[in-house]
Amino acid sequence: KQEVTQIPAALSVPEGENLVLNCSFTDSAIYNLQWFRQDPGKGLTSLLLIQSSQREQTSGRLNASLDKSSGRSTLYIAASQPGDSATYLCAVNTGTASKLTFGTGTRLQVTL
Amino acid sequence: NAGVTQTPKFRVLKTGQSMTLLCAQDMNHEYMYWYRQDPGMGLRLIHYSVGEGTTAKGEVPDGYNVSRLKKQNFLLGLESAAPSQTSVYFCASSYGSGGPNYGYTFGSGTRLTVV
Questions:
Q1: Rounded Cα distance, A93 and A21, in Å
Q2: What is the mean pLDDT of residues B102-111?
Q3: Which of B41, B46, B48, B110 is 20 to 30 A from B32 via CA?
Q4: Chain A: residue nearest B94 by CA?
């Protein structure tokens, strides 16, 4: 059974700092991995999707990497802003019906 | 705006009552899903559908039923609500394995409380 772990569970950083969020998964046979953002009381917004054949994806200040063989992904946020404060969720797609297995998320707070 | 719409957004039920949650998408996605989100447990898959007229069980299907009579709609039913079903429910859709983008689109959620 696929298990996804995100470390740390919570993180507080001052504005302007670069930071890395970690995601690990137990079964390397994945089709893709997706990073989501969730604001309190809201739904999930897709940030980046990395196919199993890719090593990284970039969108603005966000960069996600994937090392399938070691079962790890990282989300790098450059020059953090208070508006980045949210919970970040990692999810892996193991193929069958494109079902996702989620981690429990990292709650990020960026302070002024 | 294109996307996934869930109704209702909030609901309070008494134990034993029934209700249906509606999910509608206008992106012509083949695959649709129902997840529940509980504190400390992340999102867990309840049921899913890979096309009109199909449904399948996910990780936590007990106490729920689903139907996908039309491609754009996916209904989640609770026949006899229990306090353990208090949760936030999210619907999602995707093109599926044959589409141009395997990414998911999520609805804004339904917050259900069973008392």
A1: 19
A2: 88
A3: B41
A4: A98
